[in-house]
Every structure is written in C-alpha cells, then in structure tokens.
Write a structure and sequence with these properties.
Blueprint: H1 2-32, H2 47-60, H3 81-88, H4 98-106, H5 115-139, H6 142-154, H7 156-162, H8 168-187, H9 209-222, H10 228-242, H11 248-279, H12 289-298, H13 314-323, H14 327-336, H15 342-355, H16 368-374, H17 376-379, H18 384-407, H19 409-413, H20 418-431, H21 446-463, H22 470-473, H23 477-496, H24 500-518, H25 531-543, H26 547-560, H27 566-577, H28 581-594, H29 599-608
Helix pairs in contact: 1-5, 1-6, 2-4, 5-6, 5-8, 5-23, 6-23, 8-9, 8-10, 8-21, 9-10, 9-11, 10-11, 10-21, 12-14, 13-14, 18-23, 18-24, 23-24, 25-26, 25-27, 27-28, 28-29
C-alpha cells in the first residue's frame, strides 16, 4: 500500500512537471506566434532555411536526393561554390537528413509557418523535462527528480530553441530517452541479467530485447543528428562493459546485449545506408559538414583557437582543398598545420573546451537575448548562468561519492554502517519508500552514474572539437541540470537534517562554480543584442505587411543602438522595394536622425523625395 501511494505521488509530480513545461512553452510561443519572431526559418542564411529547402526538394524532386541541396552562404565566399562542393564530397547530405524528411512528410498540413511542427517540438520539449525527472529520480531521489524537472521546465534557452525549426529540441528528447532506457537496462543486473527472484538461478539471462530496442533507437537517431555518433558509442561501451565483470554467463549475456544493440542499430540506420548505396555516397555517410567544421575549428590559425564561428582561415582553405572531402586527409592536414607545436594544440583545444562554460548564449542563426527582450516569459527564466554552477557542484559531489565507493567496495556492497542506517531510516520515514528499482541501502547506482559520466565526457569531448554556439551546447545542458538537481537534493536533505556544515560546503561548491564560469575568457564572443536581429525582424514584418510591427522593432533598435541608423535604413530599402514610398521615406529620415551621414538613407531620400 505504501509503495502504491508513493507511485501515485511520483506520477502526480511527473504530470505536474509536464503541465508546467507545456504551459511555459506554449506561453512563449503565444507571445511570438504571428510575429516576425515566428518566421526565422525564412532567413536564407540559416540552418532552418536549409532544412526547409531540403524538405521541399525531397517532396517535389526525388526521395533519394542523389545531388542534395548545399547552401552557399555569405560567409563562404572565401571559395567559390564549386570548390565547396568538392570539399563536401559527392552525393553526401549537407546535414543528417531525417529532420528534413520529416518536414517533407508533414509539409502539406504543417501550416504556412510550420505551426504543427513547432507545436510537436514543444510537446517533445515537455517530454524532455519528464525524462530528466525520471533519470534524476532513478539515480538520486524523488527530490532530485522534482528539481531536475522544474529546472528543465523553465530553462529559457531550451524553450526558445524548441519553438524554432531546429533539431536541438527533438535531439535532446532522443538523447534523454535513450539514456533513460540504458539506465533501466543496467539496473536489471550485469550484462543484462535480472536481479534473481527467490528460487531462480543467480545468472539467469534476460532477454536481449531491451538492448536491441536501444540499438534501434540509436540507429534512427543517427539519421537525425550527427551527435548520435557520441551517444551510440557511449551506449555500446556501457552495454559491453557492464557484462565484462562477473561470471562467464553474465559476460556472455553482456556480449549478446552488445551484439543485439549493433544489429538493431544497423536496422535503424538501414534506410540511409540503402540510399547512400543507391546514389553512390559513402555507405555510412550522414553529413558532409562534419569534416568541414572540424577543419575550420581545429587548424592552427583558427580564430580564438577555433572557439568562435568565423569564415575558414587561409590554412583551413588549403587543408580542405588538399583533402577533397576525405576525412582522414583532413585530419592529417589539420595536424600538419601545427608543425609539431603541441602547446598550441592544447591551447586551441582548451579554448574550445572552456568556451562551453560561457554564462550567456552565444548567438548564431538566432539570438536568445533578442527573443528574450521581445518575450516576457523568457525574461526571468533560468539560464546557463544558474545551471552551470549547480551542475558543477553536483558533479563534484557525484565524483566524491564514486571515489568513496571505489575506496571501500566491500562496504558499499554490504549493509550500511549503524550511523548510515539510522540516517536512511530517518529519511525513509519522512519521504516514504525508495523509487521502484532501487534496493534499500543503494540510493546511488554505480553503473548508472558511470554511464552518465561517460556520456558527459563524450559530449564534452565532441564539443571541444567545434566552435561554440548556444545551440551546440544544448546537449550538455540536460546533464548539468541532472547534476544540479543532485546538488539541490543533497542540500535539501542536509538542511532538513540540520547538518549545516556540510550544507555550507555545497553552497561553497556552487560559488566555486560561479567563479569558474567567470574565469572563462569571453572577449572573442558576441554578447547581448545584435542590430542584425532587429533588421531581420523588420524585414519579415514588412514582407507580411505589418509596418507598425516593423516600426516597433526599429524603435527598439534605436534605443539599444542610439548612434546606428542601419536598421531604419535597411527597413526603408525593404519598404521601397514593396512600393511603400511614404513609409520608406519615414524610415530613411529616422535613420538620418540617428546617423546623419548614413549613406544608405541619404541615397534612398534622393531616389524618393520629389525634386
């Protein structure tokens, strides 16, 4: 009866987290729906526009896309379009294609601004909050699960990205779903064997089906996002390693689980594998951008050590030209660019590694700070400036707990000490029974925590090889939320037990995380609002015939950039192209009040003012 009551309370908590997450997300969307901020996929220099164009070609031209769409953006003018195509290699998709295929599938009824797609992404975003709550509850406690779910439900940058035609929100949902599936599988015993019931053999093998389902999900995810390579490797290592220790039957069960995972992964990936064979692409090719991004970010003369997004340096152009689409040749050329200077290699890697801790959201296609100014829901939402210090403290606590268990494995496997048993009984009386799947006295499942650390290390390593933007870092954020929830839960327990010294230690770790974040070099990164975003918003508003909305964006730009008339000038040009002479003149004149010598505005006035 007690277990049933605890399960009911947990279910209500998860439902509350889902409803809160959904409410925050749809509140934000309601504030931008029908405005220029809901049309960012029309920006032809963005990844969103690339996904849409690729989807249109899939639907209207060819399902297999033997010659996929590759955009040629303004920053790519360091080389002609033909040269870029030679670097990309023949027939390879620009980015992992499944997102574009899904857009192509729903295009007829998705709405002019893909409302149904964005709505579904917001639902998945609320689901990600539930995944986080379930993972934290399984690894730590009910309190940690509640903290993780609430933090994720209100986390501003994630809410902002989920309402755009971008893959990050659905990708986070997939990573968390696969992670939760792995944790459930690991808890059932080494190498996929069940915890035996009374009278059952100790090494009775379980079905290989859970590992196969994980592999199938990972294979499908590999067609959706390049980061799936890291996730797939982490899952495979965990499955194989978990069966490597123990009896021979458990080792065999672990090998069976790893084999089932790989076989099912191939089944999930097989549609793209078949397409690649049909058009003459490399069989396991997913994206041609991976090699290019690696070279741009890792050659010796990459700006800011490769941590910032810039046009390819002369060295990067040379390496790409020599590699001609070969990943191995690109790797050799990148290494050769250092001339054996290992110090510089480590400096550049550390610059990218450290940049993942920047407290603000580094903009690229979109700008969180710009959307935050327009949408009140985001103004008080937690950001990485809060999540990083909490996660930093929780990670150190988790590592300390793991080290403690490693030093005394016998004690961790036996009954707890009298002091620990008394503390656990006291907690049990106040919190009810432990979540299902946790044996009393084992609230810190070792295999699950090692799996989480392996995933964190893999993602952080991958992100230390590319330039830093807010969207890329989003895959780290859920893990910092999980460790942050651990810190909050530990702090809560200590305060309830009035163990103020240890509570103060956790608070000190959080402050240390704040200091670590402040020590990250940030001079090379864009911070705050960009004039460019206001200009783009004006353009979309004018294209939709909403001149008052364009005036509002331009006025806000003038407040933030009082000596720059660029937004008014560009909006004037857009109005002039649409034949709105009176409005165009007004915008040009306002540009000149801010910047009397603005050439674009002066030329516009000469064209439009009566002589």
């Amino acid at each position: 009866m007690e277990r049933r009551g605890a399960g009911r309370r947990a279910g209500l908590a998860l439902a509350a987290i889902f409803v809160l997450a959904l409410g925050v997300r749809f509140a934000f969307w309601s504030q931008i729906s029908g405005t220029a901020l809901d049309q960012w996929h029309r920006f032809d220099q963005s990844d969103m526009a690339t996904y849409v164009e690729q989807a249109r070609r899939i639907r209207e031209e060819s399902l297999t896309q033997p010659d996929p769409y590759h955009p040629y953006h303004s920053w790519q003018t360091v080389a002609p379009a033909e040269k870029w195509l030679s670097w990309y290699g023949p027939h390879a998709f620009h980015q992992a294609p499944l997102y574009s295929y899904l857009l192509a599938l729903v295009m007829p009824f998705a709405g002019a601004e893909f409302q149904w797609v964005k709505g579904l992404q917001l639902l998945l975003g609320a689901g990600s909050c539930v995944w986080l709550a379930l993972i934290a509850r399984r690894l730590w406690s009910d309190v940690a699960g509640l903290a993780a779910g609430l933090l994720a439900a209100c986390y501003g940058p994630l809410v902002f990205l989920e309402a755009q035609l971008l893959r990050e929100g659905p990708a986070v949902f997939c990573i968390l779903g696969l992670s939760y599936g792995l944790l459930v599988h690991l808890e059932r015993g080494r190498g996929g064997t069940a915890v035996p019931a009374p009278g059952e053999p100790a090494d009775r093998p379980r079905s290989w089906l859970p590992a196969a389902l994980l592999g199938l999900g990972a294979g499908l995810f590999s067609m959706f996002h390049e980061m799936a390579n890291v996730v797939t490797l982490a899952l495979l290592v965990c499955l194989a390693a978990h069966g490597a220790w123990g009896s021979p039957s458990r080792a065999r069960a672990g090998a069976l689980a790893a084999g089932a995972f790989l076989g099912a992964w191939f089944v999930g990936f097989s549609p793209l594998f078949a397409r690649n064979l049909a058009v003459g692409a490399a069989p396991f090719s997913v994206s041609c951008r991976t090699t290019v991004n690696f070279v741009e970010s890792n050659v010796a003369d990459a700006p800011a050590g490769g941590a910032t997004f810039e046009a390819p340096s002369p060295t990067a152009v040379r390496v790409l030209d020599e590699a001609q689409g070969s990943g191995l040749a690109a790797l050799k050329g990148t290494w050769a660019s250092y001339g054996g200077d290992l110090g510089r290699v480590f400096d550049n890697l550390f610059a990218k590694f450290a940049a993942n801790g920047i407290p603000w959201e580094v903009p690229d296609n979109t700008s969180f700070e710009f959307f935050r100014e327009q949408a009140p829901v985001l103004r008080f939402a937690p950001t990485f400036a809060l999540v990083f210090p909490l996660g930093f403290a929780g990670l150190l606590l988790a590592l300390a707990r793991l080290a403690s268990r490693a030093k005394s494995p016998a004690r961790s496997a036996e009954a707890p000490t009298k002091k620990e048993a008394k503390r656990q009984r006291k907690l049990a009386e106040s919190q009810g029974p432990l979540p299902e799947g946790k044996a009393e006295g084992h609230p810190f499942p070792l295999a699950g925590h090692l799996a989480l650390l392996l995933l964190l290390a893999g993602l952080l390593s991958a992100l230390s090889l590319v330039h830093t933007v807010a969207r890329f870092r989003m895959y780290l954020v859920p893990l910092f939320i999980l460790y942050g929830s651990f810190a909050l839960a530990a702090l809560w327990d200590l305060l309830r037990e009035r163990r103020l010294g240890r509570a103060a230690l956790i608070a000190g770790l959080v402050l240390a995380g704040v200091q670590a974040q402040r020590s990250v070099p940030t001079e090379a990164f864009v911070r705050g609002l960009r004039n460019f975003d206001y200009a783009l918003a004006c353009k979309f508003a004018i294209e939709g015939g909403r001149i008052d909305e364009a005036r509002s964006f331009a006025a806000r730009a003038a407040l933030n950039f009082p000596r720059d008339g660029l937004v008014y000038s560009l909006a004037g040009q857009e109005l002039e192209r649409k034949g709105e002479r009176t409005a165009a003149l007004d915008f040009y004149r306002r540009a000149l009040t801010l910047e009397p010598n603005a050439a674009m505005a002066l030329q516009g006035l000469r064209r439009l003012e009566p002589r």
